[in-house]
Structure formats: C-alpha cells, structure tokens
Amino acid sequence: MSGHSKWSTIKHKKALNDAKKGKAFSKVSVQLTHAARQGGEDPDMNPNLRMYIDKAKEAGFPLDKIEKAIQKGTGEGSEGIIFEEITYEGFGPFGIQLVVDTLTDNKNRTVSDLRKIFEDIGGNMGDAGSVSWNFETKGFLVVLPGHMEKSEKYGEEDKYVEENIEDVTLNIMELDGVLDIQEIDDEGQKKLEIYTEYNKLGSVRDSLNTQGYVVKEAELIKEPKMYKELSQEQLEKAQEAIETIEDNDDVQNVWSDIEL
Known about the structure:
The protein is an alpha+beta fold.
C-alpha cells in the first residue's frame, strides 16, 4: 500500500511543475467539462464535479474559467464538448509496465501521440490486457481526521477541529467497502489514506462528507499486484519517461509497476 503514498508525492510535485507551464490548468478544465457533461452542472447533485471544482480551486484555477469549463460540458452557448475516457497500456524503459488513463475529444490524435511518445522513451504500446492484468483498481481517499466547525461570527472562517485519530480510524473502518486505512504525517498534518473497493469509492466519500470529515482527495487508483525493482539510475530514467507521458494534454494518470 505504501507505494501509492510515495507515488502520490511524485505526482504532486509534477503537478506543481505542470502548473507553471499551464498544463495543470488545461487538464483541470477538461476534467470539469467531462464531469459536467456526465452528471450535470450542479455540484450538489454531481459529486465528481464537486471534487474537480475543489481541486481546481486548490490549484488556483480562476472561478470564471471554472464556470466556462462547466458550460462547455453542459452545452451552454455551443453544442458541448464530448470527451472519452480511454486507457492505454504498454512498456517503458527497462521493461516497466505502464497503464495510461486519458480523457480525449479525439482518440485518433491521442493514440498517435502516445505511440510516438512510447517509442521516444524506449518502450512500446501493448495490446489491451498486455499489462493491465497486473493492476488492481481501487478507490483512494485522503481525509483529515477531524471536522470543520462553523463560525458563529460573520466574516470569520470555519475552524478545523482535529479528533482522536484512532477513534476516527475505527469509525471509518466500519464503512461498507473500506479495505485498508493508513495514518500518514504530511509536514506535521495528520491525515488518513483510505483504500476502498473500486465500486464503493463514491458511497464511502459521501459517507465521510455526511459525517463531516474533510475529504482532501478522492480518486480511483490502479495498484500493481507485483512490483519491479530498479536501480537508482534506472529509477530516475524511468520517472523521466513517465513525466514525458504525463506532459501530454490528454493524459490524466500514468500508473506503473515500479517499486519506489
């Protein structure tokens, strides 16, 4: 399980670099449009859209651009934009296994671009099932072990109140679909990483929100059943290859079997 925590750190650092180049904003916009297209423009009725709005705000995405991206999905002022979720798989340098999740409005462009990228990094795209057999889809959430206390005074921000982390952990473990919980320390901030059955991610997230816990992240992850060990030099080159794939605008996530 710990492998994902380390991988999340790498993805977070990469997201910061992408934000400087404008790529993070571009991907957030696509996610908002797709979520609105699938479940409507009301975040109270569309949990996925609510999650992406929160992510967009955290990334500093302007509110007017959030609204514009949502309108693209609902078709306001246009015919709307339709994106497809397509997953590709293949092999990277040193034979590492790669699963690439994309969100695209032109799958011919995406597959052509990815095929060239795989060749450039010294790998090759594989057929469906060539590596996905080694990956298991799970739900993944990051939660603060506490709740937001509403301020009674106008103009004051709500206050975060931390609870006993052991009591919170036991409470969450009782939720249907929860597989495992890990306590982590993120620069002095206690957090819980929660792993769920892939089809129970939404219900667990909604239960946590209803109970007042602060959900910082909620997504489906693809975790390898077997990992591949690399030397430090090989690891650095493999991570560079993965970042090259992530740079593509249509790519949302890259999962690998690397043992970090």
